[in-house]
């Protein structure tokens, strides 16, 4: 069979999940929060991949742990990646490869390191060379959230709490993402990049904070504006320049865009909308506008095909059951799709429950958060049953038609003899 025979061109809607792979450090670099370790994936990865197949899911957000794979300049330990990606290929599960998820190896330090972009581009090149059958990538997950939590809120990694720290982290993260795309495209010219990013909105809770909310609502777009080479507004340009971005650095982003290879990944949670209070603090607002309205804002800004790339709900903390949240998000995706916006797919994140995300990993409490399709004993949860039913019912019902681009994808098993491990 030829490679073309193995290509899939969705009319079929993409249903996905992911393996939670966050690796930030806390306590000023002394403690690594490795979610693959804490949630048991290193021990149960074969079972986890089998569960993906059991649900009828063909797409998996997944990546090797950067901190144990990228062990030094030009040095890589591929043992775990070779084993896991060989199994994904055998199962014909399409990975959306997440190369950096909220942390870097100890020897790089943190996101303030100006060497990070070039080093990460070298890693992306090495990964693409080793696994040439892989087509879909998220080079760096949630760039805005990563910079915000690491350098504006002081929670992770460099644990800074300043606008200058935030801008420094952001410019390094986005440049690393851009250079990684360039490196991967040199190896795999038909690569596609699903840039998973948090879709957010800030609501002014008092009249005196309207200006603050406007600033926050402009700042939420910075990572994607720079990544896609979109000119920022005057207020954000001033903000960037006042906090350490040079004109040459800004020009780099405007001159190096790979937008034509990108799919806009949109993540939405109950905590993505924020109240801005009179004292300048923010708090979770719940789904005031919801994914449908906020997702539309992001689409209208970037005009790219969209993929819903993350959602979940801890029903122990939320106002509704997680099965109802699943249905609400699915209805929002369908509304966007039916209104003519090219939404290519939907994701419940993640496959299994997680640890300590109720405090954004910034405390080591070892508290299980019931967020997955399966619990940590790998037993299916009600939301997993509901997602499987949803896929069974709707999997063949939402053709792309004229509302979605027909993106040629090559299934892992159909790439041919060129593939490595």
TrEMBL record:
Any Pfam family: Glyco_hydro_1
InterPro entries, A to Z: GH, Glyco_hydro_1, Glycosyl_Hydrolase_39
Domain of life of the native organism: Bacteria
Protein name: Family 1 glycosylhydrolase
């Amino acid at each position: 069979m030829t490679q073309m025979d193995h290509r899939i061109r969705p009319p079929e809607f993409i249903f996905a999940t992911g393996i939670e792979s966050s690796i930030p450090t806390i306590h000023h670099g002394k403690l690594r929060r490795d979610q693959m370790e804490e949630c048991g994936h290193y021990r149960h990865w074969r079972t986890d991949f089998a569960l993906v197949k059991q649900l009828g899911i063909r797409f998996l957000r997944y990546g090797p742990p950067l901190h144990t794979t990228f062990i030094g300049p030009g040095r890589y330990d591929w043992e775990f990646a070779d084993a896991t990606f060989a199994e994904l290929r055998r199962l014909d599960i399409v990975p959306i490869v997440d190369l950096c998820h909220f942390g870097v190896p100890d020897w790089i330090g943190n996101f303030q390191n100006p060497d990070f972009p070039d080093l990460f581009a070298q890693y992306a090149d090495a990964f693409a060379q080793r696994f040439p059958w892989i087509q879909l990538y998220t080079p760096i997950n949630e760039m805005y959230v990563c910079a915000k939590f690491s350098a504006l809120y002081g929670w992770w990694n460099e644990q800074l709490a300043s606008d200058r720290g935030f801008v420094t982290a952001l410019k390094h993260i986005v440049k690393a993402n851009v250079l990684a795309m360039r490196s991967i495209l040199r190896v795999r010219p038909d690569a596609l990049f699903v840039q998973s990013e948090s879709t957010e909105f800030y609501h002014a809770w008092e009249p005196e904070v309207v200006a603050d909310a406007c600033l926050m609502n402009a700042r939420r777009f910075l990572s994607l504006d720079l990544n896609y080479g979109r000119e920022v507004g005057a207020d954000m340009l001033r903000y960037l320049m006042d906090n350490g971005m040079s004109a040459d650095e800004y020009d780099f982003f405007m001159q190096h865009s790979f937008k034509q290879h990108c799919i806009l990944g949109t993540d939405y949670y109950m905590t993505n909308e924020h109240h801005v209070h009179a004292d300048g603090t923010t708090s979770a607002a719940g789904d005031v506008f919801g994914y449908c309205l906020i997702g539309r804002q992001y689409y209208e800004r970037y005009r790219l095909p969209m993929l819903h790339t993350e959602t979940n709900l801890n029903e122990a903390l939320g106002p509704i059951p997680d099965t109802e949240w699943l249905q609400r998000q699915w209805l929002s995706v369908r509304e966007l799709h039916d209104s003519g916006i090219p939404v290519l797919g939907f994701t419940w994140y993640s496959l299994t429950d997680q640890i300590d995300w109720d405090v954004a990993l910034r405390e080591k409490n070892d508290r299980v958060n019931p967020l997955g399709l399966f619990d940590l004993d790998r037993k299916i949860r009600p939301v997993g049953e509901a997602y499987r039913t949803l896929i069974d019912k709707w999997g063949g019902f939402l053709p792309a038609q004229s509302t979605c681009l027909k993106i040629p994808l090559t299934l892992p098993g159909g790439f041919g003899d060129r593939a490595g491990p």
